[in-house]
Amino acid sequence: MDPRLQHPFTCVIAGPTQCGKTVFLYKLLTTLNEVIKDPPEVILWFYGEYQPLYDKLATALAKEPPTVRVLPETQSKPSLGDNVSRDIQQKAVENEVLNSVPKALRNKAVQLLHKITSSDGIVDWNGKGELAVNERAIKGSNMVDLINDALRKRKSLKPIGTKDFSKALAKLNVPHELIGNPDRWQEMTKLLNPADSEITDLPELPESLPDDEELYGAAYHLPSKKQKTLSVRPKTRKKAIRWEKY
After folding, report:
1. With CB atoms 3.0 to 4.6 Å apart as the test, which of 4, 45, 54, 235 could cross-link to 37 if both were Cys?
2. With contact defined as beta carbons under 8 Å apart, do 182 and 153 qualify?
3. Is 168 in contact with 123 (CB distance < 8 Å)?
């Protein structure tokens, strides 16, 4: 039985930083014929930022290394360092939020954070923890204060950026169940549907109502209240006169 891997196959190399993944990949490439039966002729790298490393690996390979090609559409992807830095900042704010809310509200805080982080940039925060709506940072705001304010009503003053945060949550269709502050829910409703919260653009009433002649013509008059009352009274029958006989 041939112990070599049969192409095509799937191989996932995973592990913490500096655990030897790169060394394993190098050894795999240098011993393709020994490890893989019918090894591939072309290897595609999916991230352009790794290209210098792959170039070094290719140089160190045998006399006839496999062809290495980078997919062009992946060249514009952000670097690995940027992604790691962003994840660290995001996790730091999430942990700060969860540590600041009461235990009874942590489940709702987790759901609200999930809504925010999966909003495709509609609402987010920057490295300072400031609110960012559509990639526009609200200076002086703080996501910890804003999320706590949305979860429950407090005696403290409204945090900076409350209106922008409420409007963003309304656009995300955040359920009422996650908004424990009634003032904030009312604000979300007004910002998203102003016509539903206030009656506006009503037609103006005339200064004086038209009289009967203007409505129905000069020959027509509505009966007065007295006439209406008389018209509905039943007619009384006159008593018959009885003649006495002499």
Report:
1. 4
2. yes
3. yes
Please, are residues 150 and 180 in contact by the beta-carbon 8 Å criterion? yes
Full DSSP string of 1-28: ---SEESS-------STTSSHHHHHHHH
Residue 245 DSSP SS3: coil
- Which helix (H) or strand (E) segment is 42 a member of? strand 42-45
- pLDDT above 60 for 40: yes
Q: What H or E segment, with its residue span, contains residue 44? A: strand 42-45
* 3-state percent helix, strand, coil for the chain, nearest multiple of 5: 45, 10, 45
C-alpha–C-alpha distance, residues 194 and 200, integer Å: 9
Q: What is the pLDDT of residues 184-221, one digit of tens each?
A: 999 998 877 655 444 344 344 444 545 544 544 544 45
Pairing of strands 123-125, 131-133: antiparallel
DSSP tag of 67: E
- Convert the pLDDT of each residue in 99-109 to its tens digit: 899 999 999 99
Please give the distance of CA 133 from its chain centroid, rounded to a whole number: 11
From the CB of residue 211, how many other CB atoms can be counted at a distance below 10 Å? 10
Residue 15 φ/ψ, nearest 5 degrees = 160, 170
Pure H helices in 61-159: 80-100, 106-117, 143-151
Residues 6+ apart with CB under 8 A from 205: none
Q: Which of 137, 122, 129 is nearest to 100 (CA)?
A: 129
As a whole number of angstroms, the longest Cα–Cα distance in the chain is 159
pTM, full prediction: 0.48
